[in-house]
Amino acid sequence: MAIEIELLKSVPYFSGLHPPELEAIKRHVFEQSAERNDMIVLEDEPAEAVYCVVSGAVKVFKTSVEGKEQILCIIRPGESFNDVSVFDAGPNPASAIAMTPVTLYGITRAAMEALLREYPAIANNVIKVLSKKVRHFVSLVEDLSFRHVTSRIAKLLLEYATNHAVQDEEPQARPKLTQQEMAAMVGTAREVVGRSLKALEESGAIRMDRHRIVITNKKVLEEASGVTE
Amino acid sequence: MFEMPIINRELCNGCGLCLSVCECGALAIVGNIIRIVDTDECGYCTECEAVCPTGAIQCPYEIVIEESYEINPE
Fold it and tell me: B25 contacts in A (CB within 8 Å)?
């Protein structure tokens, strides 16, 4: 399928460029499609390109040797991933999987070098894109390194379960929390909450029962929260 | 009836990302707005909430202590 100018405009690297320039840029860009759950990029493999999502959503993640997954970010239309490898010639820094059927615009390292030579304005856009990503990752590093998110999530669950005992209220009146709300309450990212809930489930403290978080062992949850009697 | 994700129609921009991430048919798009389709196929994976760029989908959790644990914690 041909690269469309209108869609190319939504790529942050090409922001502010005029239609004639975009028309010329088209030849440096390739289109790639993927089905849901297709692995687009594998961590540590040689990098082929930076990808911009035109439609669909992509999950970028790292996997530990034990198989634990840490989501780094979810990439939506108008955003890019695997950026650094086209600038430093290194391997893919993380894996990326299609969460939905996706259409991507890819730019290889050689093409990016040519684009930067021909259209220096792109360099400013590259700086903006990478700066935004650095800010995101610095914040994520802070969450993962310095904040004991799992213990704060444990404390939050204990407070909610204790203060709003099931028998006290009608089901509709019981307070509920989304993962986004939990993230906001303990000062972290939604991606980190998902991992903390998994960790608490693996420890036997809770059970994820569809739309319910069931505290199966209050003592273990209290220990995880740092609250001990 | 199962608890289902909740749509805030004012925030929904009709982008359809949630629809494409949903594997159980719990979402449909009607008039450019996402609607919930009640189905017991919905496993509450919360991917629709995670992928929504406008925060229009919520998958709230009820937080409860297991009843058997409350009776006999040991």
Answer: none
CA distance A197 to A176: 15
Residues in A touching B20 (Cβ below 8 Å): 36, 56-57, 99-101
For residues A206 and A201, give the distance between their C-alpha atoms in angstroms, rounded to a whole number: 5
pTM for the whole structure: 0.74
The pair phi, psi for residue A97, each rounded to 5°, is: -125, 145
Closest CA to A190 of A77, A74, A83, A39: A74
Domains in chain A, CATH or no CATH each = 5-142 (2.60.120.10), 147-225 (1.10.10.10)
**Interface confidence (ipTM) of the complex:** 0.85
What is the rounded CA–CA span in Å between residue A73 and residue A130?
14
Which residues of A make CB contacts under 8 Å with B? 36, 56-57, 74, 76-77, 99-101, 157, 160-162, 164-166, 171, 174-181, 190, 207, 210-219
Of A56, A211, A217, the CB nearest to B62: A211
Per the listing, tokens 């390109």 go with A49
Domains present along chain B, CATH in parentheses: 6-71 (3.30.70.20)
- Per-residue pLDDT tens, chain A, 229 aa: give them: 688 888 898 899 998 999 989 998 999 999 999 998 899 999 999 999 999 999 999 999 988 887 777 888 889 899 999 999 999 999 999 999 998 899 999 999 999 999 999 999 999 999 999 999 999 888 888 877 777 899 999 988 998 888 665 544 555 546 688 998 898 888 888 888 999 999 999 999 999 999 999 999 999 999 998 865 5
Dihedral angle sign, alpha carbons of residues A44, A45, A51, A54: negative
Q: Are strands A212-215 and B61-65 parallel, antiparallel or unpaired?
A: parallel
CA dihedral A189→A191→A196→A202, nearest 10 degrees, is 180
